[in-house]
Design goal:
The structure is a homopentamer. Chain A is an alpha+beta fold and about 375 residues long. Chain A has three domains: about 170 residues, Beta Polymerase, domain 2; about 100 residues, Methane Monooxygenase Hydroxylase, Chain G, domain 1 (Up-down Bundle); about 70 residues, Methane Monooxygenase Hydroxylase, Chain G, domain 1. Helix content of chain A is about 50%, strand content about 15%. Chain A has nine helices and seven strands; from the N terminus they run αβββααββββαααααα. The first copy, chain A, has a seven-stranded mixed beta sheet, with helices on both faces. In chain A, strand 1 and strand 2 form a beta hairpin. In chain A, helix 7 runs antiparallel to helix 8.
Chain lengths: ~375, ~375, ~375, ~375, ~375
């Protein structure tokens, strides 16, 4: 995964926005033109038939019948009136609709009378610290989904509907399962790529390379915390779904939801393990820095300790005491072996110093 | 958010005060002239009517009737006798009144017979580590609120009452919800501004600038811990409210309370994530300091290691051994190429040293 | 709070003592002359009357009647026979009596038939890491308290009894509440003073002063852990009391106990927050040390890097190569501008070095 | 245990693979030729008889009768059609079969109608961070096991069946217990070897040797986290099994399952303790590095502090001030005891310096 | 407590052994000659009588009658056949017997029909990281205990039986309580001695002495983790015992078991607090190391900064520029006050440097 810093910075905070205005009346829907324009399409299947349709007018909104499943898929949340009209047509609770528009909900399951409201969060391909809110309504014979942006991970589900897979033989509850399952499955490659990144950094640190490991590890850890938070929310939400005693969800769909919950738990496992690895690697990288400072210090001390005494000796024999004033004044300067003596003294001292450090093990790194 | 240190220091401890006197009889109300003087006003609405009134005399205190909602809003807690009188008029429990005056209660919900007592904590605009206690009593047809200081985040609620919004069609329980919701909503911009601060610091640390990051991070972390504590309290209190089987709270108000609880949980999520970020950034800033020490050390060691041997050579050829006493005494001094030889020796040594450090990768930062 | 180290050291371990002899029969009471001698006094109140009495003889021990409350207050645990006699007179369980004497119990509530046994722990004024055990027995019409040492925080309760406050109109359960409440209230000033200490240290660290902060923080953290442990115990004990379905405790006393529990939870909140602050400050102080090492290193490196090359140049022109042996031998020494050239070389080098460090930002701290 | 880095790197991520294709229909079985080819064998025992058979054709698949236990053991998961056929023959649920093929399941217990599906994870001998999935189906009179690779820890179970041990007198539930028990038992030597490694490192750090301790500790900690995760999964799964009210599991088998659960808890205990040790050792190793830096610094400072003043003195008496120009110019150079005086000055200074450091305790390490 | 490293190293791992052979049939008892040889003795008391007997032959095994309590105490687990025979005589479950022999069980309580099986762990006097397993069987009128080694903390219980204490008037359940209580009581002095050690180290660190504190703290922390683990196990086990609705345990024994549970909780409290202290001290010791490095650095920088410029000046005036070649060449050398000027320059520079450091507060430690 290529974490481009500018995007990362620009989007880091996007996942947390205040409600329209603090203290506004709950259930107020406000159009926001910075969002994508709203488009609608439906897939109606069951009894062997399949109709796909793009909805242009609100009066085209389908009325679901028994024996068929209608999936109304709305993309883009810019036009509050349209969404409000949909809410009225299908009797969706105002608070739920408000949650649809305020796209920073946690993943959750709420029950409003005979409609089940599920919020799930879909990963973006290009924004590591952001997620798209998908709001699902499960009603009798009907599933309504709201997405923030065009592009989703549901194509494989649509394909399975078109090919008349098992999904066509079952009710809307199974469709909800299939959609959530598709969202969850998209977490796998993300975590896998982070894991690969961690392995690379591990190799780099062990090889004592890679000075920028620490800020990369910090970034990865932040993404892992972000993913873990999302996964916990989905875990909670799926737990509610699995335990739900609700006539909207057929008993044999529970097995599939439980399977999906298993996947989330498995992902959480991986995220936790990777976070542990990440922390461990950060500590290792820190220790590596400390160890290097130590090594550098040792070189410095070695050099200083070896050369300082030698420099002193050279300095002493560079003093200008007058040999004529006294026989005590630097007689070495006139010895026959004076110069060799001084050089030998230096060499011997250097060897002793090096031997001392050798004995203390400073050369065995 | 601009965290001015002096205010921060002055107020840091204000949120924690001892009860009037340790061991005093519970239920004793003591006037405290350091507090704001007590003022009262009411809003009476329902059945399409709205009366706003400033109460000057205790005998003006309203008697609520069926079909209307009376909101008695008391600001300033300086005059214990007035508050005691209000308590007697509306049969509020002495312990609850004591909690009203001792403004360091946790957010909580207590049930005293047919009156529900809620404590919520409102953020101050200018004091990051302090919060104002708002005490709410929910009785039949009536809501009583006590605030410490003038100025609150309830204006938007008052406006909605004046405009005859949905709030006017519902009972006092909905008013309590609306007030709590207004308090909670005010946490969003605070957390958002802290988050922006964290992002700035993140950018600074990554750019290796900003030496004072650590104490700023410490401050932000402290505020986050403070906010998290408040949010946990509200979460607990709202959980009690949502689960309350109480005739004072209509069943369909529960949906709204649950929505408010959702907001608190969402805020907690953000606070936790920001706290994790904060800790991560602190560690990164620390590592940055260690890394810099390392870099500085490397420069020092490099310089020392390169220059010490050269200085020694210069020192040696500065010795005054007498060439007349012996042909062994520093014959180099009289070589034809003596001086160039010495300079070349130095240059070669320097190049070897630098090559050694190059090989060890000290120049590739 | 003035934490005098010697006392702190001397008393640190006092709060943890082994039972009389490991494996001794439970219920064995052993006199311990190192403890305070045992004295007894009673307060008997109710029906508008109040009798205070000092008990000298065991046969003076009061027999409680209906309609009055007897508070038998025993101070000093040196005389096991007296305590055993009291136990027999009022049918206290041997294991509870053993707990009275082994003064290192946790705060707790035990039910022995129709007697309720409560252990609470009272703070000492002068020993930050020690607490005094107060054992309370609640029986019909009677409260018995055992304290380790003279001096307590109950005077305010006694005063309220003497002044015929609400306490006189209620049963012994309310007295037990009032005593526990007095003990808990004494925790407030202690935590407040620790909080003030923390604020001071915070200010010192931010001002980069105060080298002994770390050991003071360690001490404060230790005291906070100690207080938190005590508060948790009281929280557990009060939770048991509040939930107790026991005829000894009147239903309307529960409201007061719950209020007391609220105080404990509030104190725990403060202790937790302060502990977080303490840890944060420790980390900040550590980072400050690292930052200073960094600053010191920078000065060292700067000086070394600037002066080493200059010293080398001076050393080179101090070499004694013989100018007469060769025109190549140090011709600079006989240049007309030789000396100024050397000094200029040094100055230019120094300026280049300083410019290099300026560019790397070593002067912008 | 010999942790070969290349294998460790290569396999670190193998334990986490995405499902066949994100969003694929659940229950889809896809052949994967990178897996081991599928082989089957059966052991049929009970009523004193034992038949072992290698299954080559799907029509050889045994039909279990009352009074006997059939253990169908499938190794290698390459051939999806064969596995699908087995699933159809014995009515195994498609989701369970999918889990069999996607070999990255957590250890778990699922109930599908009258078949119990257990996933356990078997350690590899040569891959410290990988585990093999063993899927067990417990049906009436029958146990079916799927393994990823040839080679397992079940030989001892097979031997006990061949020798007609207690296992032959009991039902398939006991066989499931015996197999899980064999898997769990294989964790003991792994943890034991890690513990021994930790002890070795402890000894090395205490002896101030072993610079590579930190990366080894990081590796061990990672393996411990991996093992702990597996053990937690098995603990959860066994808890479900022990509490299962299922006619497939005889009541007296519960005692054995509880015993197996005890072993897992014991292993968890060891893993937790070892992880604590590991963290402690990492901190100790870090402190050791800091301590060494300290020691090296002290040597450096000592040498510098002793030699710098001496070098300065030598430098001073090496200055060339002209004695003929002024009697003030370096008269020492012509003193009778000039040279001895300079040497003595140096010696005295050195002794004073050393004494100063001695007094500050720099020699007492 | 004197923690002798060799013993500590040798025994560190002893507390964790694999079962006889991985995958062996459960309930297999294998003789292990490395264990102590098995000896047996009984105490039979009740109805005022007491018989103590050493059992040499298996047919001497006592048959308990109503109205008496038989305590069969087996020491040493080397002879599996004897233990198997005892198991058969008293109908002990094979899995329980297996647990008796595999002496690395957690403290626990298991119920096998009408026999209660309790595992407790007794501290060794001389092995800080090891504990001896004591297995207790409570049957009707009978208690059977198995110990690994001779020597235990039960002498005080035996003495109380001999002296006809309260223990003789009660059933075998009270004997089990007394034995567990004796085991738990022996934890008190161990924790007390560790606490004293911690206080000593605290004093040493505060006094900036004691370089080996860190490895000692690591050792103490490891022991505390070990003790805490044991205490948690006992807490769990005693919780089961206290809550057990079992006819083997008389209701009034529950009070005593609860008292014993209280002791364990108290010990856990101390262990937790000590562990917190230990971690705090480790951090303090680490900070102390960092602080010292800082101090050493400051001395080094001071010396270097003061002497380097002086050495440079001496070097400059030691240059050999020829005064005869140019009047610009080092005229200072022939000044009348040349030498005093140079010395004064040096002194002034030194004073300025020292003043600079004084101003930056480097002398105020």
């Amino acid at each position: 995964m290529n974490i481009t810093p500018p995007i990362y910075k620009r989007l880091a905070r996007k996942y947390f926005h205040r409600r329209t205005a603090p203290g506004a009346a709950p259930g107020t829907l406000v159009s926001d033109k910075s969002k994508h324009p709203t488009t609608m399409r439906t897939m109606t299947y069951g009894s062997g038939q399949l109709v796909e349709q793009k909805i242009e007018q609100l009066d085209q909104l389908p009325k679901p019948h028994d024996g068929q499943v209608v999936w109304l898929d709305i993309t883009g949340l810019a036009d509050a009136p349209i969404i409000e009209a949909i809410g009225k047509t299908y009797s969706l609770h105002p608070l739920a609709l408000e949650d649809v528009l305020h796209v920073h909900q946690r993943a959750k399951v709420d029950e409003y009378g005979n409609v089940l409201f599920v919020v799930a969060r879909m990963l973006y391909d290009d924004r590591p610290l952001d997620s798209e809110q998908v709001s699902l309504f499960l009603a009798k014979n009907m599933v309504i989904t709201f997405q923030e942006d065009p592009g989703d991970c549901f194509d494989i589900v649509r394909e399975r509907i078109r090919q008349g897979g098992r999904i066509c033989a079952r009710g809307p509850d199974y469709l909800v399962y299939a959609l959530i399952d598709a969202i969850i499955d998209a977490y796998f490659p993300r975590l896998e790529s982070l894991g690969t990144d961690l392995d690379d950094i591990d190799a780099q640190i062990t090889a004592s390379r890679g000075r920028h490991s620490l800020s990369r590890l910090h970034e990865i850890r932040r993404i892992l915390i972000f993913l873990r938070k999302l996964l916990w929310q989905h875990r909670d939400a799926l737990n509610v779904l699995v335990r739900q005693e609700n006539e909207l969800i057929a008993p044999d769909t529970h097995v599939y939801l439980r399977d999906c919950l298993d996947h989330v738990v498995q992902l959480l496992d991986v995220a936790e393990t990777d976070r542990d690895s990440c922390i461990g690697l950060q500590e290792l990288a820190l220790a590596e820095i400390g160890q290097r400072t130590n090594d550098v210090m040792r070189v410095l001390t070695l050099i200083t300790t070896v050369f300082m005494p030698l420099t002193l000796i050279a300095g002493i024999y560079g003093m200008n005491f007058d040999p004529n004033s006294s026989p005590l004044n630097m007689p070495e300067l006139r010895w026959f072996f004076g110069y060799p003596f001084a050089l030998s003294l230096m060499s011997i001292l250097a060897v002793i110093m090096l031997g001392f450090f050798w004995a203390r093990g400073w050369f065995h790194r």
